[in-house]
Design goal:
Layout (H helix, E strand, L loop, with lengths): L12 H16 L4 H31 L4 H29 L4 H8 L1 H11 L7 H19 L2 E4 L2 E4 H4 L8 H17 L1 H21 L5 H8 L7 H14 L1 H15 L24 H15 L1 H12 L3 E4 L9 E5 L4 E8 L4 H18 L13 H14 L11 H31 L5 H15 L9 H4 L8 H5 L5 H19 L1 H14 L5 H7 L10 H15 L4
Parallel strand pairs: 3-5
Antiparallel strand pairs: 1-2, 4-5
Helix pairs in contact: 1-2, 1-3, 2-3, 3-5, 3-6, 6-9, 9-10, 11-17, 13-14, 13-15, 15-16, 15-22, 16-21, 17-18, 17-21, 21-22, 21-24
Length: 561
């Protein structure tokens, strides 16, 4: 089935409750392992049907946040979600206490029950109304930010579309567009920060209703983190501060020298080379055609899978008015297929999407038949390894996408390294926010500036009222939509760097390891999963330093002035 043929609509409240209660009673009254297992499998199908419909409603909303039908259904979905969560919780409570648990663990593994026990801590009927409020606030943020446009040279651009001008060789053009973007965001700054203030207070209240000290603990539980805590994350952030921030200072000094601007303004931050950033060879149609060739060369499976995505219209890539910003991969369980969403704008980031989001999609393809569904996809820090590693595994094929692929590889690797301090800054900021939920808007902005100066002392905010005020974080949608989902990118990046280091030495062996990781899905928690493919653990002291060292050597050998 093509994407537009997928059923669009929502299950009724009556169906969700009636069918859910029926399956709960089936499990509750099971008199044998076979009956309990049958109830479990039926509940899996029930969840799959609902999640597939929810996913389609969510995707359509991001495709056009102006469409009244899409908005209405998305709001309705937020009202139904806590009802589903309540039924899921009641089913899982019976499952983990089942007299047939031993047999179920023997069949499905103990990790499933660890995940279920953790998830049970994240929901009680008392927070159902709060979940609806939370979803509505997040939707309000998405609609507000996605509706922002600027006019330039007689044309209207979404902020994603306008981003390409920040790589212009004409500094005056960068300044004009950059200021226009930031001024437009400033217009909604107070509104957006108020939305976030409400979210923080709401989430803190939810955490306390559930018996957590604060939302940090609930946030980690929501992320399914069973094998590490905020203590390990704090020590990991220190590794980035000690081993990566000093390197980024050097890389930034080299960039300023390379572009010939010793004291850059904020609108100079996206420029890598004096003669221009790596330019992609074409727009969506051209890039997709080249991506198909690339994936056919990479492996039989990746080639067939990319063709499948195209034939079934599972790629929506180019930026347009009304479309939500950013990019993502999501999955339709009933159709056993992923969907890739992005905002192509004519920059090298377009190619990054074709590798990054495809990495996510390929993992979903590799593990779609794993049962139960909880094992199909790992926790987020593991998911991002698939996507970020694919970016590096595609390096040998970049000639097809860029006039100067060496420039692209150097810029891409440099950006990946320089992302790490920003990524941990976002994480430390979120810890501060939820440890101090009542601190207020001004204190949050001041804290952002303090954290940014700590991890990114080389970054220029000059010339932007938005950045100088400390409100850069309001453009990071993860902070609003998915609390604590950001350190995951940095942990995965350290693992992806290891795949890159391996690939430089032996591509065939590295590819086999990569496919093995994809096929493992989410059968194991993060630290155990990466151990299965012999990746060094980012939480272990010294891992970051050892991983970064070969990258510095590569950059020195491939420097472009």
């Amino acid at each position: 089935m093509k994407f537009e043929e997928f059923k669009y609509g929502l299950p009724t409240k009556n169906f969700i409750i009636k069918k859910g209660n029926f399956l709960i009673e089936k499990l509750k009254n099971a008199s044998s392992f076979e009956e309990a297992n049958k109830a479990f499998k039926s509940f899996e199908k029930y969840k799959s049907k609902i999640y597939t419909l929810f996913t389609n409603v969510s995707v359509h909303f991001t495709l056009d946040v102006r469409n009244e039908t899409y908005v209405k259904n998305n709001d309705k979905m937020n009202e139904l979600s806590p009802i589903c969560a309540e039924i899921n919780t009641r089913f899982n409570e019976i499952l983990v206490k089942s007299k047939f648990r031993k047999e179920l663990e023997e069949k499905y593994g103990s990790y499933l029950f660890k995940m279920l026990e953790l998830s049970l801590k994240t929901f009680k009927p008392e927070i159902m109304e709060d979940i609806v409020k939370e979803g509505n606030l997040v939707n309000e943020y998405t609609k507000t930010m996605s509706s922002l446009t600027i006019e330039y040279k007689g044309k209207k651009y979404s902020l994603s579309m306008a981003g390409k001008f920040l790589e212009s060789l004409d500094r005056e053009e960068r300044k004009t567009v950059g200021k226009a973007i930031h001024e437009k965001v400033l217009e909604v700054k107070d509104k957006v920060e108020d939305i976030y203030d409400q979210l923080v207070i709401l989430r803190d209240g939810m955490a306390k209703k559930l018996g957590f000290k604060n939302y940090v603990e609930l946030g980690y539980a929501n992320m399914g983190r069973t094998d590490y805590t905020s203590k390990e994350v704090a020590l990991y952030r220190q590794q980035i501060l000690e081993s990566v921030t000093p390197l980024c200072k050097k890389l930034e000094r080299a960039r300023r020298k390379r572009i010939g601007i010793s004291s850059p303004y904020f609108y100079d931050n996206a420029i890598t080379y004096k003669d221009g950033n790596p330019k992609v060879k074409g727009e969506e149609k051209v890039l997709v055609a080249e991506a198909e060739k690339m994936y056919k060369k990479l492996s039989k499976d990746t080639g067939e899978f990319f063709v499948f995505l195209q034939e079934n219209h599972l790629l929506d890539l180019t930026a347009r008015e009304g479309k939500s910003g950013g990019g993502y991969m999501t999955y339709f369980p009933d159709y056993q297929c992923p969907f890739i969403f992005s905002n192509f704008n004519g920059t090298s980031g377009d190619v990054d999407v074709l590798t990054h989001e495809f990495g996510h999609a390929f993992q979903a393809y590799c593990s779609k038949k794993i049962k139960p569904s909880a094992y199909q996809s790992p926790t987020m820090e593991s998911c991002e390894i698939h996507s970020m590693s694919m970016e590096f595994l595609a390096y040998p094929y970049m000639d097809a996408f860029f006039d100067n692929s060496k420039k692209y590889r150097f810029a891409h690797l440099t950006d990946a390294i320089m992302f790490l301090p920003y990524g941990v800054a976002v994480d430390e900021f979120q810890h501060f926010v939820y440890e101090n939920p009542n601190c207020g808007v001004k204190a949050r902005d001041e804290k952002w500036l303090e954290i940014q100066k700590k991890y990114q002392p080389y970054l220029s905010n000059k010339g932007s009222e938005l950045l100088e005020s400390g409100a850069r974080w309001i453009r990071q949608h993860h902070i609003f939509q998915s609390p604590f989902y950001y350190i995951d990118y940095t942990l995965a990046q350290v693992c992806a760097f290891q795949f890159f280091n391996w690939d430089v030495k032996n591509h065939e062996k590295t590819w086999k390891r990569y496919v093995k990781l994809c096929k493992l899905g989410g059968k194991y928690p993060f630290q155990e999963l990466i151990n299965k493919v012999h990746l060094k653990n980012p939480f272990v002291s010294g891992t970051v330093k050892k991983t970064i060292r070969p990258l510095v050597k590569y950059l020195k050998e491939n420097t472009i002035d």
